[in-house]
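mind reviewing both lines:
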Amino acid sequence: MYALVEIQGKQYKAQEGDVLKTERVPGSEGDVVEFDSVMMLQNDGQVTFGQPYVSGAKVKAVLENEGKDKKLVVYKYKRRKRYERKQGHRQPYSLLRVKEIVGA
């Protein structure tokens, strides 16, 4: 059984026991979070599509960890104009362990 779930504007394939690396989700470590924006549900070969979401379907996950990704360096340069800019960015993320997929 798996589901396609939308978490903060991005779509993820979730199966029970999987760990999803998503954008930062509000909460603290150990919290159980529920997502009811399930777009597709597959159970024993039977596929259910939502319009846009499957009614009554939920994905329950445990917030395991939060952190920041590797640094991404943004460098701007214009030749002969003495213009250089260097900027770093580290994207915050959350690790979610899928505990249960509730189907309709």
Notes: The longest strand covers residues 58-68. The two ends are 13 Å apart (CA to CA). Residues 2-102 form one domain. The chain has one domain: 2-102.
